[in-house]
From TrEMBL, chain A:
It comes from the Eukaryota. InterPro entries: Ntn_hydrolases_N, Proteasome_beta4, Proteasome_bsu_CS, Proteasome_sua/b, Proteasome_suB-type. This is Proteasome subunit beta. It holds the Pfam family Proteasome. Belongs to the peptidase T1B family. It is found in: Cytoplasm; Nucleus. It comes from Mycena chlorophos.
Automatic annotation (TrEMBL), chain B:
GO terms for cellular component: cytoplasm; nucleus; proteasome core complex, alpha-subunit complex. InterPro entries: Ntn_hydrolases_N (IPR029055), Proteasome_alpha (IPR050115), Proteasome_alpha-type (IPR023332), Proteasome_alpha1 (IPR035144), Proteasome_asu_N (IPR000426), Proteasome_sua/b (IPR001353). The 26S proteasome consists of a 20S proteasome core and two 19S regulatory subunits. It is found in: Cytoplasm; Nucleus. One of its GO terms (biological process) is ubiquitin-dependent protein catabolic process. Belongs to the peptidase T1A family. The lineage of its organism: Eukaryota, Fungi, Dikarya, Basidiomycota, Agaricomycotina. It comes from the Eukaryota. This is Proteasome subunit alpha type. Its main location: cytoplasm.
Automatic annotation (TrEMBL), chain C:
One of its GO terms (cellular component) is nucleus. Component of the proteasome, a multicatalytic proteinase complex which is characterized by its ability to cleave peptides with Arg, Phe, Tyr, Leu, and Glu adjacent to the leaving group at neutral or slightly basic pH. The proteasome has an ATP-dependent proteolytic activity. It is found in: Cytoplasm; Nucleus. InterPro entries: Ntn_hydrolases_N, Proteasome_bsu_CS, Proteasome_sua/b, Proteasome_suB-type. Keywords: Cytoplasm, Nucleus, Proteasome. It comes from the Eukaryota. It holds the Pfam family Proteasome. The keyword Nucleus applies. GO terms for biological process: proteolysis involved in protein catabolic process. It comes from Mycena chlorophos. Its main location: cytoplasm. This is Proteasome subunit beta. Belongs to the peptidase T1B family. The 26S proteasome consists of a 20S proteasome core and two 19S regulatory subunits. The 20S proteasome core is composed of 28 subunits that are arranged in four stacked rings, resulting in a barrel-shaped structure. The two end rings are each formed by seven alpha subunits, and the two central rings are each formed by seven beta subunits. The catalytic chamber with the active sites is on the inside of the barrel. Component of the proteasome complex.
Length: 266, 275, 245
């Protein structure tokens, strides 16, 4: 059967038709390419997706944030999904993009960490090693034209050093003191850079938390695929801490004054 | 030549619970010329005695570089050693490729030990005819391991393998407690003294038959060594300084050690296959 | 025709690289900005890589391919070291890179490579490649986002194209190191002004031939020695800030 729900009908594909102007009968073409292609299907587009992940360095380590929403097109399908995943005692992986691919990554990383744990020789994998491993996995999959459809942030703290890096479905990698995936790259990244760049070694955990919270709030206001429920991960010398999901404080009373929002008075 | 009927297949136990083929493999290690390994807090070193097949031949390679942080010295069949060292190099490089980290030395030694073990159990195989001394460095400092064709690997403060290695072992057992705080120069001197014990009576160490492998910061006269001191093999002229630093045997409280070296097994003729 | 969306395995991450060979040195440079579309992904992602103490490779194009390619080249060089107990000479590295690139002729590394260093005869060398392995040895080459801005400038300043020497004189075949470094810095400052994908930082690797002294490198601030070969070639890196806007 066809495992791509977007080929069944609704919901429409927001990636190439953000304003729903395209006729609904136009479908991605997954026609068989050879005699055996029926038996194999590849991810051609994300289905259930997470939006932005944010991360910054601060004085004692790295802090990351991601909301709890997994969308199905424009439908807010799952509202209690965790997108920050601890890997060992020094690392957190945050994911945007396809959630099933992310869960697959969680699985292979968990297996990897079990193997490492079983070796029990004091050679723990740190964030840098895990990021390199992930970049190899992602690049290998893109090279098979069968990508894992994610943008990933790897944050960690080990041997006195902060680590923060990005890797995505193409295998592209980079690191910086502030990172944001998805919509966050457009909306939050400038805010994060203004707040963090040059102050990585001064910011306290409280300040870092405030910066992320403010950015998450802006994202919730502006990103239609976001949620006001989110989690924070803090990685310091004391290890990994991921909060319970928490709610953003937002105000909407200004909306009354916007023409076209509420009931029109004139 | 024959021991008994349990000789031909290494997967069959003798009634005494022994695998004769595996023991013969260990014998092949003893036929190879000696190698010595020792370590201090800062360095791990290897020393080996090279043999040549005759006046017209060059000396057999006894040491291999695996990675910047790992090196080995071998005793036994050089051809088997090349297969195993190639495998170790692959492991080391895939660790760098996949995790961007130097392979943990204990896992590397464990990997070849596991390979060797398979050969002691599966039908139609033969054990490797070579033993290794492996030195390596990681976060916890320098290490020395022995690998044997039986599929074992152990970590040591100091160790020797190969022909008449018992004499070197005797020397090392006598002095190993002082190695921890040795300078590189002193450590190499100890190593050379130990290696010297394995020589036949009329032979001595010279720049042609001695190899030194070093892991750790440079010696005072060494040039072109990076800060942390990647593994390097010294041959020829480069070992001269170290050879010159040796204390002549008569004065170096040698009587006991010399006595141990004296009953050298006769079966020490140089053989083409053996390094 | 139904709407088709096919996964595109490539991206372009901007930036520019440049290398110039002198008679006894080679300079290999690149900016450190990495972009995708209008986004600056990071202000520091190196595009210039030390291969040996006398060979440096600059990559430009799709960053993931570039990084992977450098890793693979380094592995091949390590096997060469294992087999021969010495570093691979640069002309051999150049041919190796051609073979590796052409090996992916039908799923290319989307990367423009420039290899710089010192030949076995002691001369400065620059080799430039296209993504599928065509290569040649040159005196200077720019590649990447601002290639079209920088290369004409180099043609004019290095090869003296469209210039006429004063009567009875001729142009030099090779320029001295300080002149070349100033040209590199000027190239990148100008490219930063006129191209949005260039900026943030400049990394210049300098390889000096054996027994050739410092060639005026001591007149530059902030030079770091990165290594030296047993034969005497020396490798340095020099960093400059570029505008971040």
């Amino acid at each position: 059967m066809d495992h791509f729900p977007t080929n069944w009908g609704r919901p429409r594909n927001d990636a190439w038709d953000p304003y729903a102007t395209y006729p609904i009968h136009q479908r991605p073409n997954n026609a068989p390419k050879d005699a055996f292609a029926d038996g194999v299907q590849r991810t051609q587009q994300p289905i259930v997706t997470g939006t932005s992940v944010l991360a910054i360095k601060f004085k004692d380590g790295v802090m990351m944030a991601a909301d709890n929403l997994a969308s199905y097109g424009s439908l807010a399908r799952f509202r209690d999904i965790q997108r920050l995943h601890p890997v060992g005692n020094h690392t957190v992986l945050g994911a945007g993009g396809d959630m099933s691919d992310f869960q697959y990554l969680q699985m292979i990383l968990d297996e990897l960490m079990v193997d490492e744990f079983a070796a029990a020789d004091g050679h723990a994998l740190g964030p840098a090693e895990i990021h390199n491993y992930l970049s190899e996995v992602m690049y290998a999959r893109r090279s098979k034209m069968n990508p894992l459809w994610n943008s990933l942030l790897v944050g960690g703290f080990k041997d006195g050093k902060s680590f923060l890096s990005y890797v995505d479905l193409l295998g592209t990698t980079y690191s910086a003191s502030t990172l944001a995936t998805g919509y966050g790259a457009y909306i939050a990244q400038p805010l994060l850079r203004r707040a963090v760049e040059g102050r990585e070694h001064e910011l306290t955990a409280d300040q870092a938390r405030k910066i992320l919270e403010d950015s998450m709030r802006v994202l919730f206001y502006r990103d239609a695929r976001s949620l006001d429920q989110y989690q924070l991960a803090t990685i310091t010398k004391d290890g990994v801490e991921i909060t319970e999901s928490r709610k953003l404080e937002t105000t909407w009373d200004f909306a009354e004054g916007i023409r076209g929002y509420g009931a029109q008075t004139q | 030549m024959f021991r008994n009927t349990y000789d031909s297949d290494n997967t069959v136990f003798s009634p005494q619970g022994r695998l004769h083929q595996v023991e013969y493999a260990l014998e092949a290690v003893k036929q190879g010329s000696a190698a010595v390994g020792l370590r201090s807090k800062t360095h791990a070193i290897l020393l080996a005695l090279k043999r040549s097949t005759g006046e017209l031949a060059s000396y057999q390679q006894k040491m291999f570089r695996i990675d910047d942080h790992v090196g080995i010295a071998i005793a036994g069949l050089t051809s088997d050693a090349r297969v195993l060292s190639n495998f170790m190099r692959q492991q080391a490089m895939s660790s760098r490729m996949i995790f961007n980290r130097p392979v943990p030395v204990n896992r590397l030694v464990g990997a070849i030990a596991d390979k060797a073990q398979v050969n002691t159990q599966e039908y139609g195989r033969r054990p490797y005819g070579v033993g290794f001394l492996v030195i390596g460095q990681d976060q916890s400092g320098p290490h020395l391991y022995e690998f044997s064709p039986a599929g074992n690997s152990y970590e040591y403060y100091a160790m020797s393998i190969g022909a008449r290695s018992q004499s070197a072992k005797t020397y090392l057992e006598k002095h190993y407690k002082t190695f921890d705080d040795c300078s590189l120069e002193d450590l190499v001197r100890h190593g050379l003294h130990a290696l010297r014990e394995t020589l036949q009576q009329d032979k001595e160490l010279n720049i042609n038959n001695t190899s030194i492998g070093i892991l750790g910061p440079a010696a005072t006269h060494e040039t072109g060594v990076s800060g942390v001191g990647a593994f390097r093999i010294l041959d020829g002229e480069k070992v001269k300084v170290f050879l010159d630093s040796m204390v002549p045997k008569e004065t170096a409280d040698a009587p006991a050690a010399a006595a141990a070296a004296a009953p050298a097994p006769a079966a020490d003729e140089d053989v083409q296959m053996e390094g | 025709m139904a709407q088709q969306r096919q996964f595109n395995p490539y991206s372009n991450n901007g930036g520019t690289i440049l290398a110039i060979a002198g008679s006894t040195f080679s300079v290999i440079a690149g900016d450190t900005r990495q972009t995708e579309g209008y986004n600056i992904q990071t202000r520091y992602a190196p595009k210039v890589f030390r291969l040996t103490d006398k060979a440096v490779l600059a990559t430009n194009g799709f960053a993931a391919d570039g990084n992977q390619f450098v890793k693979k080249v380094r592995q091949r060089l390590e096997w060469y070291r294992h087999a021969h107990s010495k570093e691979m000479p640069i002309r051999a590295i150049a041919r190796l890179i051609q073979t590796m690139l052409y090996g992916r002729r039908f799923f290319p590394y989307y990367v423009y490579n420039i290899l710089g260093g010192i030949e076995e005869d002691g001369s400065g060398a620059v080799y430039s490649f296209d993504p599928v392995g065509s290569y040649e040895r040159e005196t200077c080459r720019a590649a990447g986002a601002a290639q079209s801005l920088v290369q004409p400038f180099l043609d004019n300043q290095i090869y003296f194209k469209n210039q006429t020497p004063p009567p009875g004189q001729s142009f030099p075949a090779h320029l001295p190191l300080p002149t070349v470094l100033e040209l590199v810095i000027d190239s990148f400052t100008s490219a930063t002004e006129r191209h949005i994908e260039v900026g943030d930082g400049l990394e210049m690797y300098i390889v000096l031939a054996r027994d050739s002294g410092l060639q005026g490198l001591d007149g530059f601030q902030g030079v770091t020695e990165m290594g030296a070969t047993p034969e005497g070639e020396k490798l340095f890196v020099l960093r400059r800030n570029l505008k971040r806007d």
